[in-house]
Amino acid sequence: QVQVAESGGGSVLTGGSLRISCSATGRTFTMNSVAWFRRPPGKEREFAAGLTWNGGDTHYADSVKDRFTISRDKDKNMVYLEMNNLKPEDTAVYYCAASTLAVVYSRPELYRYWGQGTQVTVSS
Length: 124
What we know:
single chain; about 120 residues; mainly beta; 7-stranded mixed beta sheet; 4-stranded antiparallel beta sheet
């Protein structure tokens, strides 16, 4: 089992920045990819960004490309999402998800381990 937990959410104004973190514990050696998903109010959960744990290959949804950066610290078993130039449409609960698969997928059902989520609110 792998446990993941998010932290660092909050409220910012349009154009602001925020970094959220994901801590992984447990059998982290089975973890091969990690992604950030988000659920905007009244909408379905959607893929935002992901990376392969060993190679560090990154993938982004078009809606966040060039504004968000996903990164990892393998020694600390941490994954980060740096969010810049935030927009009101980025308002969502952000979830960290880990998978044993070595490819980043945008389909949430392919991620076995999920955190509880952290709220990010962007106001104009």
